[in-house]
Write a structure and sequence with these properties.
This protein is an all-alpha fold. The protein has two domains: 144 residues, Orthogonal Bundle (Cytochrome Bc1 Complex, Chain D, domain 2), CATH 1.10.760.10; 143 residues, Cytochrome Bc1 Complex, Chain D, domain 2. Helices cover 37% and strands 1% of the residues. The protein contains 13 helices and two strands. A two-stranded antiparallel sheet has the order 1-2. α2 packs antiparallel against α6. The two termini are 42 Å apart.
Length: 343
C-alpha cells in the first residue's frame, strides 16, 4: 500500500467522523423556545441545558431504581405515547399498585410553568420530583436511599461526573438532571402551531369556526399559546367523597377551596381521562359539564357566574366545532420524539 493510499483512508475516516459528530450535535440542539411561544419562566441560569445532563436525566426518568422496590419509574405514570400522562387511569397507580387521589398530569412545556402539581404545592421544577419520589402511594422512597442506590450502581457515578464534573452524587444534581429531561419535553408542533407560525398550513372551515368559539368562551383560562394561564380556579365540579379541597390544602386559605390548576388543552387526544380526579373519560363529557353541570359554590370562578345558571352555554353545534379545533392541539411528533424515549 502506498503512502498516498493510507493518507486517503485517514482523510476519509476523518471526514466520516466529522460528519457523525455534526449529526450528533444537530440531534441535540439544547432547549429552544418555539417561535410562537413566550419566554420561559424557568431559571436556566442555574441549570444550563447540556447533552450530558439531559441524557442523565432521561436515564433517571425511566429507571425504576428510584422507587422503593425498583418497580416504578417516573415513566411508569408519565408515558410518552400518552403525552407523558397516565392515559386511561383516572388517578395515578403507584408502587404495589396503590392508588393516588389525583390524575397524573401530562409532562410538557413545564419550562413555562411557575408552579407544579394540581394544587401548586411545588414552586420550582427542581424540587418537583421529590413529591412523587417520596409519596407512599407513588414511588415510596427517600432521597437518602435514592442516593445510596445511585452511588452503589455501576454506571451512575461516571455519568454524574460526566454531567456535573464531580464524582459525588448529590440530591441537587439528581433533581437538576431530572429537570433537564422534563424541560426538554416541549410540545409545539401541533397543527395549531404550524398555522400560527405561518408554515403553509391553514385551519379548515370547521377548525376556524371552533377556534372562534374557543376564543370567545375558553381563552380566558386556557390562554394561547400554552392553553393555560397557570392560575387556580374552581370550575364547579361536584366534590367526591374524598372531598379534595385542592389548593386550600397548600395555602390554608378558604378562598382557595376546591380550586385546582388550569391544565393545558394541548394533546387532549392522548391524555384522557380529564380533570384533577380523572372523572371524565371523554371530551364530550367535559364540555357538557361546562354547559349544564357546573355547581354553584362560594369559590366558583367568577367567569362561570356570568349567567343565571352557572357555566358556559354551548349548543351542540358549538361543541362539535370546539372538538374539531381541539384536535388541532394534538402533536403526534411529541409522542414519537426519539430523544425523549427510553433508550
Amino acid at each position: 500500500m502506498t503512502r498516498k493510499y493510507w493518507l486517503s483512508i485517514i482523510i476519509l475516516i476523518s471526514v466520516i467522523y466529522a460528519c457523525n459528530k455534526d449529526a450528533i450535535t444537530e440531534r441535540f440542539a439544547g432547549f429552544q423556545t418555539p417561535a410562537n411561544f413566550p419566554e420561559p419562566a424557568y431559571h436556566f441560569s442555574t441549570n444550563e441545558i447540556t447533552q450530558n445532563k439531559f441524557e442523565l436525566g432521561r436515564k433517571l426518568f425511566y429507571d425504576p431504581l428510584l422507587s422503593r422496590n425498583s418497580t416504578i419509574s417516573c415513566g411508569s405514570c408519565h408515558i410518552q405515547t400518552s403525552a407523558f400522562s397516565h392515559h386511561g387511569h383516572n388517578v395515578s397507580h403507584g408502587i404495589d399498585d396503590k392508588l393516588g387521589t389525583r390524575n397524573a398530569p401530562a409532562i410538557m412545556n413545564l419550562a413555562w410553568y411557575n408552579s407544579f402539581m394540581w394544587d401548586g404545592g411545588v414552586f420550582d421544577l427542581d424540587l418537583q420530583p421529590v413529591a412523587p419520589l417520596t409519596n407512599h402511594v407513588e414511588m415510596d422512597e427517600t432521597m437518602e436511599n435514592v442516593l445510596k442506590k445511585l452511588k452503589a450502581s455501576a454506571d451512575y457515578p461516571s455519568l454524574f461526573n460526566k454531567a456535573f464534573g464531580e464524582q459525588e452524587i448529590t440530591t441537587a444534581a439528581v433533581l437538576k438532571a431530572l429537570s433537564q429531561f422534563m424541560l426538554m419535553c416541549v410540545s409545539s408542533n401541533a397543527k395549531y402551531d404550524s398555522v400560527k407560525r405561518g408554515e403553509g398550513k391553514a385551519f379548515t372551515e370547521e377548525e376556524q369556526n371552533g377556534y372562534k368559539i374557543f376564543q370567545q368562551k375558553c381563552n380566558s383560562c386556557h390562554t394561547e399559546p400554552l392553553f393555560t394561564d397557570n392560575s387556580f380556579r374552581n370550575n364547579g365540579l361536584t366534590p367526591t367523597a374524598l372531598d379534595d379541597k385542592g389548593r386550600q390544602l397548600v395555602t390554608l386559605n378558604d378562598q382557595d377551596a376546591y380550586t385546582f390548576k388550569v391544565p393545558s388543552l394541548r394533546n387532549l387526544g392522548y391524555t384522557a381521562p380529564y380533570m384533577h380526579d380523572g372523572r371524565f373519560y371523554t371530551l364530550d363529557a367535559a364540555l357538557e359539564h361546562y354547559n349544564s353541570k357546573v355547581q354553584q359554590s362560594a369559590t366558583l370562578d367568577p367567569l362561570l357566574k356570568k349567567e343565571t345558571i352557572p357555566g358556559i352555554r354551548l349548543t351542540d353545534e358549538e361543541k362539535k366545532y370546539l372538538l374539531v379545533f381541539l384536535k388541532t392541539l394534538d402533536d403526534p411528533s411529541f409522542l414519537k420524539d426519539k430523544k425523549l424515549s427510553e433508550q
